[in-house]
Specification:
Blueprint lengths: L1 E4 L2 E4 L4 E9 L5 E8 L2 E8 L11 E2 L4 H11 L8 E2 L2 H5 L9 E9 L2 E7 L5 H14 L24
Parallel strand pairs: 7-9
Antiparallel strand pairs: 1-2, 3-4, 3-8, 4-5, 5-6, 8-9
Length: 162
């Protein structure tokens, strides 16, 4: 059961929740919902390109991951960031040119705090850490394990043959 709290639904029992949406021109498009209370956290994952061996959730975060995620949120100063960068005006006036499409959205609710940000081109260094955390946690970028297959390094480059 989900409880509506402002503009973000929190899972029952959660004190805080975040929704991360990644849209990558060349990679998986996925949405991750992270929830937590105290030191315990869990997440749900959805993707159009999800592998068949991948579970949507809810899946528990391992010990320390919820606190790590909250530390990244605090470290990037999420609650103070401008909602949209670059500004739409910069697009319309040609100040920002885009080659391809790569964006992400992060929405959060913790107590009475609510914030939503969208990044279309560049990302602040702290947000890159949040992005990496979510990508790593998703498991979408790891190849499935193939039992009995040994991965060997390629042959060394011996240079041009004369």
């Amino acid at each position: 059961m989900l409880l509506t709290v402002g503009q973000l639904k929190l899972s029952e029992g959660a004190e805080a929740g975040f929704r991360f949406v990644s849209t990558d021109e060349y990679g998986p498009v996925f949405t991750m919902h992270l929830y937590g209370v105290g030191r315990r956290g869990w997440f749900l994952l959805n993707s159009r390109h999800i592998r068949t061996d991948h579970e949507h959730g809810p899946r528990p975060l391992i010990k320390g991951q919820w606190r790590e995620f909250l530390g990244l949120i605090k470290g990037c100063r999420f609650w103070e960031l401008p909602e949209r960068l670059p500004d739409w005006y910069e697009f319309v006036t040609g100040q920002v040119a885009m080659d391809g499409w790569d964006s992400f959205e992060l929405t959060g609710r913790e107590g009475e705090l609510y914030h939503h940000i969208v990044r279309l081109v560049d990302r602040e260094p702290g947000l890159v850490s949040v992005l990496r955390f979510c990508v790593r946690l998703s498991g979408l970028f790891e190849p499935p394990a193939h039992p009995g297959v040994e991965i060997r390094p390629s042959a060394p480059d011996v240079g041009p043959i004369s």
